[in-house]
Amino acid sequence: MIPEILQKDAPVLRKKAAEVPLSKIRSAEIQKLLKNMAAALNMQDDGVALAAPQIGAPFRIFIVAKAVLKMPAQTEERARMEDRRKLKQEQGYLTFINPVITKLSREKATLDEGCLSVRPLYGKIRRSKKAAIRAYDERGNLFERGASGLLAQIFQHETDHLEGILFTDKATEVKEMRQEQETGNK
Question: pLDDT tens for residues 156-171?
């Protein structure tokens, strides 16, 4: 059964997530959780990343669709992309276990942002334009990765989830927007 993505009132979304012991990363429990996260995200046309607490698992894990690496940076252009679900399934996911942002650029931008757990709200949020992160992958290998644009925004959004912070805690100009409006289908 594909897990449901929890909405903003779920208590787990407001708690700091627990680190995954390194000895447990390759465990059946964590590997099943990663599969469940991918399945839940695959069902969402408009989502590109998911944190474990969003499906009720209080662990410091998030996944990002590899397809995001090829997506345009502008929200309006992303919203018009067709077949996002298929693209995500074909390309798979990047896994970040026990992630730590190691560097944020001083240069910031005000960006449009939404969240699968805060539907149907969107808002403007100030985020660093660049970010670097250190985490473990699904095999327990430590890695570091730098990012700019959309991926840097995702790193910041998802690590906020792991601290019990929702984007609406920081956003301005929060508005309700239905998916039909976002994609231009009226």
Answer: 999 999 999 999 999 9
Helix axes 28-42, 84-91, angle to 10 degrees: 160
- CATH number, residue 158: 3.90.45.10
pTM: 0.87
Please answer whether residues 150 and 71 qualify as being in contact, where contact means their C-beta atoms are separated by less than 8 angstroms. yes
User: Distance between terminal CA atoms of the chain?
Assistant: 32
Active site residue 76: no
Structural domain range at position 165: 11-183
Catalytic-role residue among 138, 158, 173, 182? 158
pLDDT-flagged residues of the chain (< 70): 71-91, 178-186
